[in-house]
Amino acid sequence: MNNEDNGSSAVEELLKDDNINEVSKGSQVKKQAINKEYVNKLEEERIFLFKTVKRLEEETNVLRALFNKSHNELEELKKPSLLIADVVSVHGDNAIIKLNNGNKFYSYMNSDTRKNIATGDSVLVDQKSLNIIDKIEVTDSFEVEKYVIVDKPTETWSEVGGLKETINELKEVIEMPLLNPELFEKVGITPPKGVLLYGPPGTGKTLLAKAVANSTHATFIEVVGSELVQKFIGEGAKLVKEMFRLARRKAPAVIFIDEIDSLAARRMETGTSGEREVSRTFMQLLAELDGFESLGNIKVIAATNRIDILDPAIIRPGRLDRLIHVDLPEEEGRLEILKVHTRKMNLKRVKLKEISHQMDDFSGAEIRAVCTEAGYFAIREEREYVKQSDFLDAIEKVRIDEEEDQVHIFG
Ligand SMILES: Nc1ncnc2c1ncn2[C@@H]1O[C@H](COP(=O)(O)OP(=O)(O)O)[C@@H](O)[C@H]1O
Ligand SMILES: [Mg+2]
Questions:
Q1: Sign of dihedral through CA atoms 350, 353, 358, 362?
Q2: Which residue's CA is the nearest one to ligand 1's atom 17?
Q3: What is the pLDDT at residue 1?
């Protein structure tokens, strides 16, 4: 307010004063409004800037992350790849490893890694130093299950006709060590690692192997030698190795190698690549046999119809050093087998003794075929029971079928 203005009347003064007041009031309001607007603007600006900074910060973070990622990727790309090797044995902070090409190295591993590593594992190995970096689960091991039969057999000893001595021997060599290993430790003997069953086809070798797996609650891992050779060209040795690894995982286990002669035939001098491959597979099998404890919970049963061509390396002491001959059944054995396979059949006035007398030279498999055929003769005549003549007809039929097969093979 202006109090020093003396040239005006009091009214004027007043008016003026009032005017001035009005004016100054108005301008003050105006000023305040402008101020407020200005503050609002600034506030808005501040918020805008704040948001921008935030956004830029976020963008920076994203870009930094991107940069780090590509940087790391680049670094990884520059590093040499790691080798994959198998652990042969562990010695404190070191381990003997074997590379794919067969070379062995004595490698170092740090204490953290060391805790997880055991014989038979696959490991990552630095290319330069050949030190063990880490363990790796090689997915090959699931593959092996596609190629071998893994089973919990249901066949029991009671389904095996005759073969009493063979059964007893299998019980001693396979069943007892798996079920009561402490018995052997106490007495201080080491049971065989496995057995070789040999004899003509159809005499129950596979059946026996399954029955012993069943009686020991063991996993049954079956592989057929001829398939191993034909289907896995170049991979046979690996498959053998994976099979033993699988057995260790699923122990107690019985590994059954049928037709072992196709893997372990006496080596001839020709040395074709196919034969070299077979011998690599065979060498791996020998290495695996040598490599496991005979008191462990894995047993190996091999079978062959051709013991005459078998490479004797497989039956050396410490390997499959127990040979069991499974021969064609005598009359008494045939009767036992006949009893097994007619157990569930509806028979009328059938003299099993007489039938088994008629089946000279028949194997267990042929005796089973006779029972099935006899059942068919009954069904064809719309009978619900099987009689003596059905069996006699069946014997003839099986004999003729056999002879025809022989002609097919040799004719
Ligand atoms: N001793 C036997 N007792 C009962 N059945 C037998 C006997 N031998 C063979 N068989 C029958 O023949 C089938 C084939 O026999 P298998 O064990 O495969 O003979 P191998 O392996 O010696 O060639 C068996 O599944 C079984 O039904
Ligand atoms: Mg068989």
A1: positive
A2: 204
A3: 45
